[in-house]
Amino acid sequence: MQGTADLSVVFYIIFILNTGKSGAQNELSQVKTVRDLYNTTSCVDPPYTCPHPRIQFYLYTRYTQEEPDLLDTTDLNSLYASHFNPSHPTKVIIHGFQGGRIYAPSTDLRDAYFQHGDYNIIIVDYSTLVRLPCLNQVEWSPRFCAECIAQMVSYLASHPRGVPPHKLHLMGYSIGAHIAGLTANYVTDGKLGRITGLDPTIIFYMGSNFSRDLDPTDAHFVDVIHTGAGILGQWGPNGHADYYVNGGTSQPGCYSNSIIKTLSCDHTKVTPYFIESII
């Protein structure tokens, strides 16, 4: 299994290098050896308990698109003081590797929903846990992040102004799709309403431990869109409904002279396809 894990690391490093994020480029410039890729000393500080300051929940509404509310799941007044409206649908966005609340696809999904109506959009920012050069964290950080998201779900369920789990729609891109599924394992206040997996990653999920994967038991309805299946994305099926756009492996307009850029494009094309489905 070590060889498979190393191969997945190589694919992801190449993928990140071709996404154009300057932060990844700068961090990789500090890497001199393979051991450096697995350095965790500067990534997440102990104790590893929820809530954790490196896992934050930003609430966006039509009134706070530029200045979101930072939710404190230990303080009842935090939700009272926010712009959260329990009568509006609540969407929870979970980004992928090297992502964050200020990067696509989090921003693209957020903006798309506000073009169609009023929503509570909660973006989970756990960017410190899934960045280079802290790759060995990806073995445990999804579970840790899922535990903290589940705590946020419990906070909303028990709050007088909150909503129960069955009214939540979690959506995760790449590794975020699996984190959404893992969250279901820690939710104790009911079953999640819906999970949308946006090209769930195959990276770090090539082994036999399928308990980490998104699956139909994780919510009342699990829908999955596959656009880069086989290399960066999983084949599945992962949900009640799996959609294989253009066959699920290669997408129009993604071909280039660089195979890595082509594969990266296939993987990221899932977001605009999903946005087209928002009504």
UniProtKB/TrEMBL annotation:
The record's subcellular location field reads: Secreted
The entry lists its GO molecular-function terms as:
lipase activity; serine hydrolase activity
Instruction: Give the CC-aspect GO terms.
Output: extracellular space
Q: What sequence ranges are listed for the domain Lipase?
A: 48-278
* One Pfam match: Lipase
InterPro entries for the chain: AB_hydrolase_fold (IPR029058), Lipase (IPR013818), Lipase_N (IPR033906), TAG_lipase (IPR000734)
Listed PANTHER family: LIPASE (PTHR11610), MIP30168P (PTHR11610:SF174)
Give the range the annotation lists for the signal sequence: 1-24
Tell me which Gene Ontology terms the entry assigns under biological process: lipid catabolic process
Keyword annotations of the record: Secreted, Signal
Q: What is the protein name for this chain?
A: Lipase domain-containing protein
CDD domains xrefs: Pancreat_lipase_like (cd00707)
